[in-house]
Amino acid sequence: MKAWQVPELGEPSQVLTAVDMDIPEPGSGQVVVKTRATASNFPDVLMCRGKYQVRPDLPFTPGVELCGDVTAVGEGVDGLAVGDRVYGTSELPHGGFAEYAVLSAATCFPAPESLEDGQAASLFIGYQTAWFALHRRTQLKAGETLLVHAAAGGVGSAAVQIGKAAGARVIGVVGGSDKAEIARQLGADVVVDRHAEDFVAVVKEETGGRGADVVFDPVGGDTYRRSTKCIAFEGRIVLIGFAGGEIQEVALNHALIKNYSILGLHWGLYNTFDPNTVRHCHEELTVLANERKVAPLVSEHLSFDEVPDGLQRLADGTTVGRVVYQA
């Protein structure tokens, strides 16, 4: 089979290497799938650079989120059969930027029939992360104001749709007019281009000075610090990641004075400590997808040869919507 491998660490466009290799065999609790589509994710970029918390041995094939057809089932797997169209997270080193990939049965679910392959490939990590952030960690309520940073990105776009489905008023922050249009298509009530406007001032104006009840922050750094200036009384800030490159220090006295909560979310831990809720989240997302309340916005379909360039553009922050390798 054809696959992209990372034999050494560096930028995706520089280190991804096309190889021919044997189709992998499933281990216990695993399935092998013929890849239909693989979504590009920032963790793929970070793993190419060797800067992610998961550091697979070299060489490995990235592509942590995909949709495919089951072709082989390992020992101890129940509920999945050859021919099933599924989506989920890959088991490295056999990621989704290849003709075949390996998935753990524990994080592999039936793909919603309402979604095409690229959308299904984009549903798992970002949408599960947003669902856990908004429903489990911050307990977002209908009628509240939700501020979403990087609202046109992979996880931010999911937060916009899930926030709207929960009945919140969503303010999305993006960088650039093209990304602003994406956020509007996703359903954001108010869109702020951070290159042209101050999101702090916009949030205060839109809420009559009260501030946002929930802040969804996958950026960190100065974005987090400035979000504390427009958080409401008893508001909640949930930290998803640090795509901005800076892990900020938190002034806890400020949280005390303004009565707001700072919450962290490492979604991957739920797969270990609470897999039943992960399955429940899948069921909830399937309902929302079938009701057309959530649908990943796929902006680009990449051929096999275009994978390194597409992943590099994601790394450089120039993509909009979801960029997907379509097999």
From TrEMBL:
Against InterPro entries, the record matches this protein to: ADH-like_C, ADH-like_N, ER, GroES-like_sf, NAD(P)-bd_dom_sf, Quin_OxRdtase/zeta-crystal_CS, Zn-ADH-like_protein
Supply the PROSITE patterns for this chain.
Answer: QOR_ZETA_CRYSTAL
Could you tell me which SUPFAM superfamilies the record lists for this protein?
GroES-like (SSF50129), NAD(P)-binding Rossmann-fold domains (SSF51735)
UniProt-listed Pfam families: ADH_N, ADH_zinc_N
Q: Where is the Enoyl reductase (ER) domain?
A: 10-325
Which GO molecular function annotation, any one, does this entry have?
zinc ion binding
Q: What is this protein called?
A: Alcohol dehydrogenase zinc-binding domain-containing protein
